[in-house]
Give the backbone structure.
Amino acid sequence: MMTNRERVLAVMEGRSPDRIPWIPRMLLWWLAHKNEGTLPEKYEGWTLRDIERDLGMGTAARTGRIYTTRCKNVETTVQYDGMNIITEQVTPVGTVSSVHRRTEELDLAGIAPLEVIKPLKKPEDYDVMMYIIENTQYFPTYEEYEAYDQEIGDDGYPLVATGDGPFHTYLEKYAGYENGYLDLADYPDKVEALLDLIAQKHREELWPIIAESPARLILHGAHYDTQITPPHMFKKYITPYQREMSEMLHKHDKVLVHHADSDSRDILDDFKDAGYDMVECFTTAPLVPCTLKEAREKWGADMIIWGGIPSIILEDTFPEEDFESYMKELFEIIAPGDAFILGVADNVTKPANLDRIIRVGEMIEEYGQYPVGA
């Protein structure tokens, strides 16, 4: 019998595992119940890893890192105003600021504060942001990664986050989606100069660190969406960068992964064209319009899917018989089981019914042996 690590490696390398790997993200479920004192009696005082082992699943292993950054000639200050966290970055060419907002609910659930005000608010801010990017330095942390990889052991294989491509970094982190597109229309030269600088910085400093790292499963990019990054924008601003990165990574035996917890229905082809090898936390109907069947028919075994279970179907608000029907159809759709890791998109949430999580494990044993559907 394979370990969960061996199963993930088999899928990454295009080989057949003994059964479908079952590796959901349980951290938020565990944190929420641990913080509120509502863990099931059996699991009171247990670590998340021990619970995962008891439930027969692998660990998502998402907190390893292969680099860190430092920004020279930039003074960063953080102030706290009630539930607001105000960050200022002061440079010789000006200052930009952002605001993150906490809530009691987010704190209890272990979820990071929401950024409600982005740093790019006016044309002059672009010069400041470009200064910050130019003065950001990257340093490898390979020993830290190797220690983390060893700690994960047979329970899984580390998925290493390495940021995002220039266009979505700009939209999500710097300007915000609405203002980002408005600025692109009003100040295209400034926006495209910023995008070019991010890409250049990544090529020259980030990519080599990733390429030479001991990590193989590389997460780069998140939340690309049919509406927010529609096909024509994807092809213009995302595909060229990602394709170049993918070609470089493949020469170093890496697997390029996208965090696909959005509606991917109209950009399924674009993921493949951009050189992605895997979509993880892949979200499907009824959470979004895109279905698992549509994606599987479009990609076949050319794209590894890690996901397939919408978080809502684990909750009591979703009828039991519909949950059973969804799961049985899932195994029919993915047969014979190539290029697939079963997970929950985006996370197993606090309202998830533990009995349904246990039932998924039982169904893996019943239906998930390779080849599925034999």
Q: What stands out?
A: Residues 188-212 form the longest helix (25 residues). The longest strand covers residues 84-91. Residues 184 and 192 are 8 Å apart (CA to CA). Residues 73-120 form one domain.
